[in-house]
Design a protein that fits this description.
about 200 residues; 8-stranded antiparallel β-sheet
């Protein structure tokens, strides 16, 4: 008669142990892992941008001739004040006989050439631009499209030459008036003509 209660007690203890083992099992968290993996999506991988092509280095500069070196000495170095509040700056290149012309964000390496008219031409070694220096101003041109990039560029040497020309014209006019000559307005003549003789003289 005592065997039945003992057997019943053992069955009850075994059932309670099974319930406790199921509650402590890590099966429940493991079941949630696949759901988390499905919820997280990988961001699409963007293709890497190709680096910009590196321009080829400029060709080496040829050694300057004696004429080129002499023309370099005729160039006005420094800053030019140009139209529309722009500016141009000219400095010597590390290569003797060449000059660097800076305008806006560009720098052009130029070869000075003295023309037969007395104008100084600064020729871009790449053929892109040209700067012309004459007595009363300088200008920078785009040779590809045949237009001026900037005009009315004045260096202090230009200003001094303009002022000297004004003084010379005023002195010539005063000298002509004192000697009885008149300065003609006709630009095709020499600019001086004898005044008409007074009647009765």
């Amino acid at each position: 008669m005592k065997i039945i209660p003992t057997l019943t007690l053992l069955i009850s203890l075994a059932s309670a142990g099974a319930v406790m083992a199921q509650s402590a099992s890590p099966a429940a968290p493991a079941a949630a892992k696949p759901a988390n993996k499905q919820a997280v999506k990988k961001a699409p991988v963007k293709p890497r941008a190709k680096p910009a092509p590196v321009p080829p280095p400029p060709p080496p500069l040829a050694d300057a001739t004696e004429e080129q070196l002499a023309a370099t000495e005729r160039a006005y170095l420094g800053t030019y004040d140009c139209e529309f509040k722009q500016s141009v700056s000219i400095t010597r290149n590390i290569k003797p006989g060449y000059l660097d012309v800076m305008w806006q964000k560009d720098t052009f390496t130029m070869k000075p050439v003295l023309s037969s008219t007395g104008a100084l031409r600064l020729e871009d070694v790449t053929g892109r631009t040209l700067m012309i220096q004459i007595a009363n101003k300088s200008m920078l041109m785009d040779t590809h499209v045949g237009r001026r990039l900037v005009d009315e560029c004045l260096h202090p040497e230009h200003r001094a030459a303009i002022e000297a020309a004004k003084i010379a014209r005023a002195a010539a006019a005063a000298s002509a008036a004192a000697s009885g000559l008149e300065v003609e307005a006709d630009a095709s003549s020499l600019g001086i003509a004898p005044s008409p003789a007074k009647r009765g003289s």
